[in-house]
Design brief:
Elements: E1 2-6, H1 7-17, E2 32-38, E3 41-47, E4 51-63, E5 65-70, H2 71-80, E6 85-92, E7 95-100, E8 103-110, E9 125-130, H3 131-141, E10 156-161, E11 165-171, E12 175-182, E13 198-202, H4 203-211, E14 217-222, E15 226-231, E16 234-239, E17 258-263, H5 264-275, E18 285-290, E19 293-300, E20 304-311, E21 319-323, H6 325-335, E22 339-344, E23 351-355, E24 366-371
Antiparallel strand pairs: 1-4, 1-6, 2-3, 2-5, 3-4, 4-16, 5-8, 6-7, 7-8, 9-14, 10-11, 10-13, 11-12, 12-24, 14-15, 15-16, 17-22, 18-19, 18-21, 19-20, 22-23, 23-24
Length: about 375
């Protein structure tokens, strides 16, 4: 290998790789990047066996070749260099020389044959989606994805294709977030009307897609066991989560007859302040509704109590309920509109939050968050 690349372009392609690489792994090669010089490009690849990312950048090649290098240290070296160009050269097998300006590094690597074979997708279904819309959708539901590994079917989000829209749903069993966006001329993914029009996307893939910056469309493809998201010259491939996602339509309460409308920032600030006196184990605040007012309170036997009063548009009967302040705060942080609406029924029924501003959702879709009540 003997190749020269623009340092800034190279750094831009290296940065997304860092989220894919496994930092703590019993398989050393998973902490490495695969560098392959071929044609007029330097190709990069990273994988943790469940999520893979490939990319490339323009290069001046004097000799082709490949090597796997330790990702974290390699990134630190490239970032520290001064100069517009980076010169990568394999003078000895298993060693990569890095030159830029007056700097010279030599680092050990692994043979490219040791790097895992990356999955490929024989295209069964493909569609182009507006990437800014997909990224916005992910940001609105990611907080509701479960982090409990024992509930593997909840460790991702359900991506569902409809005739003219896409829907993304996540739940951890305590709250649920759903966002829908209209996409003209989309068409369902399944030709036979079965559940092939929906798929479970793992949390890590969603997190990594959020890191990408692009206004280009994303090419989505589905294979038998993997999904592909291609944005420009980058392609993220992830393993499809197995399992059955809950029947989420049954969780979305349709008969909540009490509605309260708030200034989002004011409500979020009040909830955060009251939550300061909740305990780590009993993470709950009380919401007490009365005419045009909400009282948010928390009582902690070891610390004391907190009370916050928030004005709202509410003209129903007085009632109280308990709620996890973190769940409410996550929704208020994701919804993005100036005003929000909470629809409620009683202390034993889940609260459903919606954006109140007329646009509802950019793109003509919908957004909602369901939060289960707590006993306090």
């Amino acid at each position: 290998m003997d190749v020269r690349v623009d340092r800034n372009q190279f750094l831009a392609e290296l940065a997304p790789m860092q989220g894919i690489v496994e930092r703590k792994t019993t398989i050393p090669v998973l902490a490495h990047l695969l560098l392959t010089a071929k044609g007029e490009h330097l190709h990069l690849a990273a994988t943790d066996l469940d999520v893979s990312l490939t990319s490339s950048c323009q290069a001046d090649l004097a000799a082709e070749g490949a090597i796997a290098v330790q990702a974290k240290k390699f990134m630190e070296i490239i970032r520290s260099l001064v100069g517009e160009q980076v010169h990568l050269m394999m003078e000895e097998p298993g060693e990569l020389t890095i030159r830029a300006g007056s700097s010279r590094f030599k680092i050990h690597g692994l043979p490219p044959e040791d790097f895992p074979t990356l999955p490929t997708i024989e295209e069964e279904y493909g569609v182009e989606l507006p990437f800014p819309d997909l990224k916005r959708m992910i940001s609105k539901i990611l907080f509701a994805v479960s982090s409990e590994e024992s509930r593997f079917q909840l460790n991702g989000a359900l991506l569902k294709f409809k005739d003219d829209s896409i829907e993304l749903v996540a739940t951890d069993g305590h709250r649920l977030a759903l966002v829908e966006s209209k996409v003209a001329g989309l068409g369902a993914a399944g030709d036979d009307g079965t559940d092939e029009d929906s798929v479970l996307v793992p949390r890590k893939a969603l997190q990594e897609l959020l890191r990408f910056e692009s206004n280009d469309p994303v090419g989505y493809r589905r294979g038998e066991h993997h999904l592909s998201f291609r944005i420009g010259h980058r392609e993220l491939i992830c393993r499809i989560l197995e399992g059955t996602f809950p029947d989420y339509d049954r969780v979305i309460t349709k008969d909540n007859d009490k509605k309260a409308v708030f200034d989002r920032v004011e409500l979020a600030a009040a909830v955060k302040r009251a939550a300061l006196l909740t305990g780590d184990r009993a993470r709950a605040v009380r919401l007490a509704f009365s005419l045009d007012e909400l009282v948010v309170s928390a009582v902690n036997p070891d610390l004391g109590e907190a009370t916050e009063r928030v004005t709202c548009d509410y003209d129903g009967p007085e009632f109280k309920l308990g709620i996890n302040p973190d769940y409410l705060d996550d929704f208020l942080g994701a919804v993005g509109t100036e005003r929000v609406r909470l629809e409620l029924k009683d202390e034993n029924t889940q609260t459903v939050g919606y954006p109140e501003d007329g646009e509802a959702e950019k793109g003509g879709g919908r957004y909602l968050c369901v939060i289960m009540p707590m006993r306090i």
